[in-house]
Amino acid sequence: MGAMTRGAPMRVLVTGGAGFIGRHVVDALRGAGHQVRVVDAYVPEAHPTRPPPLPPDVEVIEGDLSVESVAVAAVDGVDAVSHHAAIVGRGREIQDAPRHVTCNDLATAVLLAVMERAGIGRLVLASSAVIYGESHYRCPVHGDVVPGPRAVADLDAGRFEPLCPRCGGPLVCSPVTEDARPDPRNVYAATKLAQEHLCAAWARECGGSVVALRYHNVYGADMPYESPYSGVASTFRSAVARGIAPRVFEDGGPRRDFIDVRDVALANLVALDRAEPGFRAYNVASGEPHTILEMAEALAEAGGGPPPVVTGA
């Protein structure tokens, strides 16, 4: 597959381009002079209500990528693909596994197959930090460890931090790096890791270029805060908008790396510029983690509402 000149305007397909992150990617691409086509199934999990129309210069195909005819039409004439179409895990994970695998993995497999036939060799995959499972933990005595499930007695007593599985002592937590061993802990995480494996296999077999962007906790403008689909930031923001104190579980101490969606869109622009064959993965994060309580406090203060309540639950 031929590589395009770096920085040259491209025709880019954004799958899931009607969603929260996808729309920002579309705007960034248009701002950089690229032509954009969007394919989106408008699934209710991601779109409880119909989103506003995309700009008139963006071609939109409404359809399910797991259907080959939709995927063929979507990739026709494009130079590169930014693949964001997926559903996020919520609720009954195992009961929802067939739908997750269909939307996330089967659709990706169909997309890759039609890309190979069309001679398209450049792909950016919206992956997720959930594939890591947990942060990196180190015991001062036993070195790197993987803590097991927290004991019910510890949770009931308000001891929320995981302990060393060998000595029961405190652990030091640090961010995971891209070479960490994946440890997906739910169906959604497993499907995101499967997407990476499929894309890596496509890159090896077809000589394509894949950049997997492992998003951390994305927030920002136009986040659908009335829906818990978008995560803890939108849940807290929804409470603040209703004048209700955000409810924070446990002690509010769990840390997350919150990344602005505009930075995520910029990361996509940079990743699309990569032409070298093969698979590369990058964390997309701010590098400055904050606790869940700090996020709730900042949102409550910005919204002029009551301070968050730490439930201990």
The overall pLDDT average reads: 91
Looking across the biggest beta sheet, what order are the strands in? 3-2-1-4-5-9-14
User: How much β-strand is present in the residues?
Assistant: 15-25%
Number of helices in the DSSP assignment: 8
User: Would you count the extended β strands for me?
Assistant: 16
List the secondary-structure elements in sequence, H or E.
EHEEHEHEEEHEHEEHEEEHEEHE
| Helix content, binned percent | 25-40%
Alpha-beta classification: alpha/beta
Distance between the ends: 54 Å
Unreliable stretches (pLDDT < 50, length at least 5) are: 1-5
What Rg do the Cα atoms give?
Answer: 20 Å
Cα shape? globular
Biggest beta sheet attributes: 7 strands, parallel
Overview of the molecule:
- The protein has about 325 residues and is α/β, with parallel strands linked by helices.
- The protein has 8 helices and 16 strands.
- It has helices spanning about 20-30, 70-75, 95-120, 150-155, 185-205, 230-240, 260-270, 290-305, and strands at about 10-15, 35-40, 60, 80-85, 120-130, 135-140, 145, 170-175, 210-215, 215-220, 245-250, 255, 260, 280-285, 290, 310.
- The strands form 5 sheets. A 7-stranded parallel beta sheet has the order 3-2-1-4-5-9-14, with helices on both faces. Strands 7-6-8 form a 3-stranded antiparallel beta sheet, with no helix packed on it.
- A hairpin with a 3-residue loop joins strand 6 and strand 7 (about 145).
